[in-house]
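A quick aside before the break. I want you to see a complete sequence-to-structure record at least once, exactly as it would be stored in a machine-readable document. Don't worry about memorizing anything.
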Amino acid sequence: MACIEGERIYAAHCASCHGARLEGQPDWRTRGADGLLPAPPYDASGHTWHHPDETLFRITQFGVASIIGDPNYQTAMPVYEGVLSDEDITAVLSWIKAQWSAAIRQKHDQMNAAAAKASRQ
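That is the input. The structure line, written in tokens, reads:
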């Protein structure tokens, strides 16, 4: 059920920028004329899976500027605090991760375990 809900929420809030197939926008590593980076892909070609769950959740909820500690950082990525519930964000991230290959999921799980261990120290 959560995966279906995550897919629905993704389609409504994320796919217009990140793509229906998680493909992101063209030239996502190059700033556009507006100075903003295009939306990155959420598939294996992107960098999303290089971040632990907690970081992905916080970026989605509070925005990139808040996470990197630079209130002047400009991005097209909306802040979803007050728009999506914690459960909605978790459902979307779970759906995205379910689209990854087993090898990418395994690497991501290892990263999450390392991040959890580091936060306990």
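Two observations worth writing down. Residues 2-120 form a domain with the Cytochrome Bc1 Complex; Chain D, domain 2 fold (CATH 1.10.760.10). The mean pLDDT is 94. We'll return to this after the break.
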